[in-house]
């Protein structure tokens, strides 16, 4: 019973409550709150051996699932830097007419994909794609990132291999089948010990997925608030530049209209004019057809210029870019402010032979809060001018402390995509997805490592980008949540809650007990981890089924569903933590959207499980 729990269990429950309150109130970032809670629980091991000790907690950060997430960030950056994912998603996602349309276009393929591969890599690969898509479609990322994670979880509940949780439950069933061939039920009945087939959980999971997607599409317009991801609050004050781009002859956009080429309604940028064969087209309409060697003049902030450089078929108009040393994929956009002591002050960029002197190509200039509408080579330099350049990282090392510039800074994520390797990156991803369906022969972690290694070996990304792609804040939060879950298990807090549930609900019959088991697993999932929730609740549910004289299979299906379908907190599933930062969410956002979804999925699962798998067949 819950009132018979030891002080360690009560201390653990109190700590979890404090963690949830801290997350809900936004007292600190999730990784800080979770590590703080884990540290408190670990420190209590000084007073009782029921708490996980430092060695145990440290091992949890070496968890295979956590390591897999880290490696998948490398696979995702390979797809992002080559533009590989955009080859598929440009047609798959298209140009949404509304937020609802965008959610449907994204959630349906994600749900389908997650049914046949682990949902974590699906989310990892879609995060950069959705981020770029939001910018182009002018949609707040918060409207899509939470639905992305929810869609992946709902899809994973449809098949045996869709999520690792289903495989954990299957492993318990296989172990039980090896010990016995039948269940001995109270009342003299016996039932065969069965394992789950590929589509067993799908009988309940598919209706839940359909209902869940429908709920999000219909109600998220009121429940999901517009959020701004950290670091983007000052976007409106960014410097604006004039940039010239060239339509590469025979490229993907040669012959397309401005609108179909994705150059209409750009975020924080617009197409000022088109220069073609000595003529200038102003007030460019959406139906204007682009031709090879068209010179396009854009006005926009730095982020929009980065997005322009990612469009297949657009290349810098200045030939100086191609004369800079080093491969183009190794270069970055760099901003530098001209000092009064720079020798090129009072001279044009062409006259000072800027590219020869600095091994960098100027692509735009910003002066006194205004963009300069002149050809780059004809601009006369003045002190305080901000130059936007394309250069290798060597420029930063050489000129960071140079008297020629007041300030030199690199623009993050500004390397031009390696479009020539996009199909290689896609092939690696497809092979990884196929290999992950054979998890009984090769682990997901092993497969992800091979894919990440191939991304580097084939130069879809490099070592520096691979290292910087890892989102340590997310990994720390996931690792700490594992530690908190371990404490719930070892102190007896989880078992105490389960025992109390069984005593209260058993007199009300199998439906009530099944609903209680589902609720218990769901609570474990929201505050512990999905796999731990399944492992903790399996023996409890089995004992409940035997005591009722009922078949165990409806309980099995509900364990599998509830252990994955935790939507009310970012702790409910690791993909929720992966989208927490990019979506700019607060803890309450998950409560507002996730609690009704928890109830919806729970009601459907508890109602349908005994229909497809009767208590007394």
Supply the key terms:
23 helices; alpha+beta; 5-stranded antiparallel β-sheet; single chain; Alpha-Beta Plaits; 617 residues; elongated; 3 domains
Rg over alpha carbons: 28 Å
Number of domains: 3
Give average pLDDT, whole number.
80
Low-confidence stretches: 233-237
How many separate helices? 23
Q: State the end-to-end CA separation.
A: 32 Å
The total beta strand count reads 12
Shape: elongated
Strand content: 5-15%
Helix content: 40-55%
Based on secondary structure, the structural category is alpha+beta
Largest sheet: 5 strands, antiparallel
Strand order of the largest sheet: 5-4-6-3-7
What's this model, at a glance?
This protein has 617 residues and is of the alpha+beta class. The chain has 3 domains: 2-51 and 163-197 and 221-225 and 475-612, no CATH class; 64-158 and 422-471, no CATH class; 236-410, 2-Layer Sandwich (Alpha-Beta Plaits). The protein is 53% helix and 11% strand.
How would you characterize the overall build of this protein?
The chain is α+β, with helices and mostly antiparallel strands. The protein has 3 domains: 2-51 and 163-197 and 221-225 and 475-612, no CATH class; 64-158 and 422-471, no CATH class; 236-410, Regulator of K+ conductance, C-terminal domain (Alpha-Beta Plaits, 2-Layer Sandwich), CATH 3.30.70.1450. Helices cover 53% and strands 11% of the residues. The chain contains 23 helices and 12 strands. The protein has helices spanning 7-25, 30-43, 54-60, 64-82, 84-93, 99-114, 119-137, 145-156, 164-179, 202-223, 302-309, 354-358, 393-399, 422-436, 444-457, 463-469, 472-490, 493-505, 510-527, 530-548, 553-564, 574-580, 587-612; strands spanning 182-184, 190-192, 240-247, 269-276, 279-282, 295-301, 314-316, 332-338, 360-367, 370-371, 386-391, 405-410. The strands form 3 sheets. It has a 5-stranded antiparallel beta sheet with strand order 5-4-6-3-7, covered by helices on one side. Strands 10-9-11-8-12 form a 5-stranded antiparallel beta sheet. A two-stranded antiparallel ribbon has the order 1-2. Strand 4 and strand 5 (279-282) form a beta hairpin. Helix 4 (64-82) packs parallel to helix 7 (119-137) and helix 18 (493-505) runs parallel beside helix 20 (530-548). The protein is elongated. The model is unreliable at 233-237 (pLDDT under 50).
